[in-house]
């Protein structure tokens, strides 16, 4: 079975599940597709007691897909560019300092807190796991997922000042999270070349290199769009920016996701829209990338549901995952308190910012992809199950209730920040 056939099957399933969601469940696409795929997979498991043909076919498809490579090396660039393209750059600039602190300090603090709490949790459950492996888990679960966050917040009705903080954080903290993950991964695997200098080099090359590449790509795209007026070619130019930029980033060993975020913000910014795009071009560019965003999101969350097939159904692992949910939420809340207090008065934060950012900071596919990158000696099966449980809870429970939480807190708001 070649990749075209596998892709065709995934698109077919996405279309069918998307149709069922709109007709029956009427949930946001991210939530609906994840739920329907999980129900479908559970149905396949049940059917396998009588005929395992469908189960074997589904497992074969999953076995042919390297989820980590597909997401981190291919899909993520398109999704982040599309998300950044529709982010208000002016408002993001106003909130740049809290977004920067949330995406750096917040991730580091959360990594340490979750790693430490998980270490003692597993010890209570009778699982002896090295502390450094727990820190590794803390690193992969701490970043909020821009794909999940962007999909949910569009319908949540969050105040704009708060929405830009959550979206801005989620766009940038995955790059920081990956660097932290790779750093701890090097320590955990006992790499011979692991040192402070190598960590700094990794950070500078990955992060700053990615940001610089994104700026160059964004400027070049703006330049070429300004020189012509043909919406067909201009849409293709934006597509070439993402595809070529991803190849260049991979070759230079810089962060492709961060490059795409910066390029997307520049292409979608007011300057480009006003001086380099006609109204017709702007409309076509927006609709094209909205379609790309929806299609890849649908395929991605179908894959998340199907990833159940690679899990080891160990009861203790599942208990650990369920108990890790409140730990992850509490640690995120604590990691946000200091940044919110520092910036709340200067930037006029809305009430209950800490609570809403905690509940609205969803985990998603990036965490699963990083967990799949662990080795067997790093307790891959254990942490994959825990990660999957947290991600599914995040998407289905937090995603379904964040809108209600925002509405309730806005009604009960008394003008003071919730801590």
Write a brief caption for the model:
The protein is mostly helical. Helix content is 80%, strand content 0%. It contains 18 helices and no strands.
Polypeptide structure, described:
The chain is mostly helical and 419 residues long. It contains 18 helices and no strands. Helix 11 (231-252) runs antiparallel to helix 12. The protein is globular.
Pick out its properties.
419 residues, mainly alpha, 18 helices, globular, disordered C terminus
Main β-sheet, in a few words?
Answer: none
Give the distance, in angstroms, between the N- and C-terminal Cα atoms.
53 Å
Number of strands: 0
Number of helices: 18
Structural class: mainly alpha
Please compute the radius of gyration using only Cα atoms: 21 Å
Proportion of strand residues: under 5%
Listing every helix as H and every strand as E from the N terminus to the C terminus, the arrangement reads: HHHHHHHHHHHHHHHHHH
Query: What do the pLDDT scores average to?
Result: 89
Q: What is the helical fraction, as a range of percent?
A: over 70%
Silhouette: globular
List the uncertain runs: 411-419
Family: Belongs to the monovalent cation:proton antiporter 1 (CPA1) transporter (TC 2.A.36) family.
Main location: membrane
Protein name: Sodium:proton antiporter
Subcellular location: Cell membrane
């Amino acid at each position: 079975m070649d990749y075209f056939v596998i892709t065709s099957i995934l698109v077919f399933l996405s279309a069918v599940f998307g149709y069922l969601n709109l007709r029956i469940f009427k949930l946001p696409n991210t939530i609906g597709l994840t739920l329907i795929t999980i129900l479908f997979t559970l149905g396949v498991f049940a059917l396998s007691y009588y005929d395992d043909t469908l189960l074997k076919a589904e497992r074969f498809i999953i076995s042919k897909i390297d989820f980590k490579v597909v997401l981190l090396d291919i899909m993520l660039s398109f999704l982040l560019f599309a998300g950044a393209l529709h982010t208000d750059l002016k408002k993001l600039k106003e909130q740049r300092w809290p977004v920067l602190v949330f995406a750096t300090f917040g991730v580091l603090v959360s990594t340490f807190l979750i790693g430490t709490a998980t270490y003692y949790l597993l010890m209570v459950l009778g699982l002896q796991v090295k502390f450094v492996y727990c820190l590794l888990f803390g690193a992969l679960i701490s970043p909020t997922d821009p794909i999940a966050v962007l999909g949910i917040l569009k319908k949540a009705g969050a105040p704009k000042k708060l929405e830009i903080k959550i979206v801005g954080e989620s766009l940038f903290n995955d790059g920081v999270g990956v660097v932290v993950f790779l750093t701890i991964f090097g320590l955990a695997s006992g790499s011979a070349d692991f040192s402070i200098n190598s960590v700094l080099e990794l950070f500078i090359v990955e992060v700053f290199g990615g940001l610089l590449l994104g700026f160059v790509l964004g400027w070049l795209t703006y330049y070429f769009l300004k020189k012509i007026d043909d919406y067909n070619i201009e849409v293709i130019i934006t597509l070439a920016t993402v595809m070529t930029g991803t190849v260049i980033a991979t070759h230079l060993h810089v962060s492709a996701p961060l490059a795409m975020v910066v390029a997307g913000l520049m292409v979608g910014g007011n300057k480009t829209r006003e001086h380099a795009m006609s109204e017709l071009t702007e409309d076509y560019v927006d609709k094209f990338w909205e379609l790309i965003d929806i299609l890849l999101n649908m395929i991605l969350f179908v894959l998340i549901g199907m990833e159940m097939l690679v899990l080891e159904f160990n009861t203790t692992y599942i208990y650990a995952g369920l108990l890790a949910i409140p730990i992850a939420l509490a640690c995120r809340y604590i990691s946000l308190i200091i940044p919110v207090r520092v910036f709340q008065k200067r930037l006029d934060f809305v009430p209950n910012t800490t609570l809403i950012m905690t509940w609205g900071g969803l985990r998603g596919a990036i965490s699963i992809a990083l967990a799949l990158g662990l080795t067997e000696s790093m307790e891959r099966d254990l942490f994959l199950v825990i990660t999957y449980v947290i991600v599914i809870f995040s998407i289905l429970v937090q995603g379904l209730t964040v809108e209600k939480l925002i509405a309730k807190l806005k009604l009960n708001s008394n003008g003071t920040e919730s801590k």
